[in-house]
Amino acid sequence: MPRPEGPQPDFVNPKDIRCESYRKLEDKIELAASLGIPVLPEGTRGTGKTSLAQRYHERLVYYRSVRPDAHGRNCKRPVNAPKEVPQRPVSVTLSEYADVNYLRDFLLGWAEGSFTGCKQAWHGYIGEADNGTLFLDEIHHLDKSLQAGLLGALNSGRYRPKGASEDVESHFGLVTATNVKDWREELSPDFRDRITRIVLHVPSFQEIRGEKDGMDDIMTFWNFVLSQHCLASGISCPEPSPECRQHLTHVLHNQPLNGNWRDLHRLADHVLMEMVRPRGGRPTDFEWDPQKLELAVRSAFDED
What we know:
Elements: H1 20-35, E1 40-42, H2 49-65, E2 90-93, H3 100-108, H4 124-128, E3 133-137, H5 144-156, E4 158-159, E5 168-169, E6 173-176, H6 189-195, E7 199-201, H7 205-209, H8 214-233, H9 242-254, H10 261-275, E8 278-279, E9 282-283, H11 290-302
Parallel strand pairs: 1-7, 2-3, 3-6
Antiparallel strand pairs: 4-5, 8-9
C-alpha cells in the first residue's frame, strides 16, 4: 500500500467493493440521492452508517448541481444558510441531547430577541442543512413531542424558529439512522411513516464474511483504514510481508469483529503503536514485523 496522496475519502470507493449486499446498498443510496428520497440506514454499531450518510450527501449534492432547482422559493430563506453547498451533512447525534427543549431550539433555531441576551437570529441545524443533508443519528432517541414538531420541516421544508413571526424555508436531503432492533416502537406513526420510506439494512462484517468475495472486501476495508491512519500520522504505508498478510487474513477471518469498522480502526492504532517509534519529533517509517504484529493483534482484541 503506497502512501496515499491528498485528502482521503470517508469511505472505500464503491467500485472496489465486490460482495452483493454492499453493492446493492450502494446502488440504493445512489438512486435515492438522485431522487431526493430520504433514507434510513439501520445496522449494528460500527457498520459505517455515518459514512453512508456522507456518501448520500455527496451524491445528492451532485445530482442537484446538474438539474434545475425544483422548489419554489416563496418564503424567507434561512439567514444563516451557507453561501456554498455544505461539504458534509449537518450531523446531529440525538442521544447527546437530554433536554428536549434544548434540542428543539438547536434543530429549529430562534429569532433575534427570542430570549434574554439573544442578539442574532439563528435558524438551527435545519437551516444549516439547506441545499445539503441533515443527518439525524440514533433516531430512536428523538422525543415523540419533537417528532411532531419536525413534520412541517420534513414535509415542506418550512418551519418556524423559536420566537419568529414567519416561517423560513430550508430544502435538504434527510438521512436518519439507528442501531437498535425495536426502533420503530420509539417513533410516532406519522413521523415513522415520513422517515421510513426507504429503510436500508447495513450488513455487519459477520454477514459480509459469509458472502462470496466477502473476505476480499474485509481486507479492502482493512487496507483503507490502515492507509487513513498512516496518512493522518504522516508516514508511508508499505505493503505487508507475505507472513504478515497471512496473519492479518487469519485474524480478520476469525475475530468476531462485533464492532465492525471500529474494530478495524482499533487494530490499526495498535499496529502503528507496535511498528512505529518516535524519532526527532516525528514517527519513524512503518516497517512490518511478524512478532510485533502478533503483539498488536493481541493487545487490540484482548480489550474485548
